[in-house]
Write a structure and sequence with these properties.
- InterPro entries: FERM/acyl-CoA-bd_prot_sf, FERM_2.
- The chain is an alpha+beta fold and 232 residues long.
- It has two domains: 106 residues, Acyl-CoA Binding Protein; 115 residues, Pleckstrin-homology domain (PH domain)/Phosphotyrosine-binding domain (PTB) (PH-domain like, Roll).
- The protein is 47% helix and 19% strand.
- Strands 4-3-2-1-7-6-5 form a seven-stranded antiparallel sheet.
- The protein is elongated and about 65 Å long.
- The chain starts with a helix and ends with a helix.
């Protein structure tokens, strides 16, 4: 269910122009994937292709001769996908949705970067006093810790300090775990961020549970990708 909602958000964002898919081949593949989820590979019908293109392509791209060109590109892409499926590739609907989501987190990284307000940030490894009132900018690649508070969860609504300065930057691939504290304390919920080099940070935020959930998703995707590469 969660994958379907994310997938639908991505498709809707591309159609509305919120997410800019600048590569024509990527866009044709995205539309072809939508056709596959709706109709499968058994009967690739041009009328159905035209219907999917009309409802899925940005309005600026579907019209006059442009629409015909895109329909043909999507049709050709579907033929290639059907051949790939016959060769044994896994192209079940859930796998297609996951492919689209993985692509989107890379291609539309700016849209998938969230900003969270942190109450405190402290290095357990180095000790010292915790820093207070920070912003965490998080996407599938990096965690960036900046001074100042986020006014919302988008990059465009940070205070001036949070936009300009960077306290520390951590690659998501370096994160071993993010574990919310089981101990109920006064103040905002806490979580421990542990890196593969055993560096640890104790962080508190009113959005702790969402941060931990998002990080676990990214960590799982990275490990799944490494596992798939090792089997290839």
């Amino acid at each position: 269910m969660r994958a379907w909602l994310t997938y639908s958000q991505i498709c809707g964002g591309v159609q509305s122009g919120e997410y800019q898919c600048v590569n024509s081949q990527d866009l044709a593949l995205l539309i072809a994937h939508q056709y596959c989820i709706r109709h499968g590979f058994d009967d690739i019908d041009m009328k159905r292709v035209m219907g999917v293109c009309e409802h899925s392509l940005p309005a600026s791209l579907y019209g006059d001769d442009k629409g015909k060109k895109w329909c043909q590109m999507v049709y050709n892409t579907l033929k290639a996908l059907a051949e790939k499926s016959r060769s044994g590739a896994c192209l079940e609907p859930i796998e297609i949705m996951q492919q689209v989501i993985r692509y989107a987190t890379i291609a539309f990284v700016a849209n998938f970067t969230k900003s969270f307000r942190l109450s405190t940030f402290k290095s357990i490894t180095e000790g010292g006093r915790p820093l207070t009132n920070l912003t965490l900018q998080l996407n599938h690649e990096n965690l960036e810790f900046r001074p100042g508070c986020a006014n919302s969860r988008t990059n465009n609504n940070l205070t001036g300090d949070a936009k300009q300065e960077l306290i520390t930057k951590i690659g998501v691939e370096k994160v071993r775990s993010a574990v919310a504290s089981d101990v109920s304390k006064l103040g905002d919920p806490q979580f421990t961020l542990t890196l593969y080099d055993n560096t640890k940070y104790l962080i508190s935020s009113p959005q702790t549970h969402e941060i931990v959930f998002t990080l676990k998703q990214f960590i799982t995707e990275i490990r799944r990708g490494e596992h798939n590469e090792s089997e290839a």
